[in-house]
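Subject: Phosphoribosylaminoimidazole-succinocarboxamide synthase

B.,
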Amino acid sequence: MQKRTMLYEGKAKRLYETDDKDLYIVSYKDDATAFNGKKRGSILGKGAINNKVTNHMMQLLEGEGIPTHFVTQLSETDTLVKAVTIIPLEVIVRNIAAGSLSSRLGLEEGVHLATPVLEFCYKRDDLDDPMVNMYHIKALSLATDEQVQQITSYALRINEVLCSYLRDLGITLVDFKLEFGMTSSGQLLLSDEISPDTCRFWDTKTNKKLDKDRFRRDLGDVEAAYQELLSRLMGDA
Ligand code: C5P
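Prediction pasted inline below.
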């Protein structure tokens, strides 16, 4: 399958049309940004790692009954996916306080939440992806009630599946972001990526961060942490 017209270039990925209107190719980049593009850099090998981690997670979730856009990995950095129109919501699931939740609610990083917290943000870089509730989603027609219900159910199930899978590998899933899209035939699919760029992964014993917070906060060893996460998932660490 060949890449044709580039449809979109984001901070960490490029998306291409193919000769099949129902299939796209996603190509992962080493470029890294944080704080909505205010901090920029590059993490050597990140594109290949995020491609592999995402595909691993998508296949795990497919096996648990979550429909995803994953079709097949084409190369180190490229994957064939089903074409979808992305719903303009970032769906965040949190198990432990960190990042913007800690600052917003004055919770110390690492505080365990009594139940998972689900948040929706409006995907708008120019507005710094503001958090929205059901009323905003309805009033702005960002998604239908049915889509929100289905997304909620999938997101909480994804959290259960990933938490349990990662727990066995000695990794704590602190929080993560999901995106969903609709196919031309009206199927809702988990899309985008599930990687150290979009999740907070902590080593369960030491609380060492194995994710993009190392880049965001200049903690060092960014490449090594991404590689360690991949190695643990692939069972060779
Ligand atoms: O920054 P914040 O604490 O709200 O992030 C929550 C989770 O969502 C983190 O795992 C972060 O990596 C992810 N996220 C993301 N893309 C965004 C915002 C958050 O992947 N635009």
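Helices lie at 46-63, 99-105, 134-139, 145-167, 213-216, 222-234.

T.
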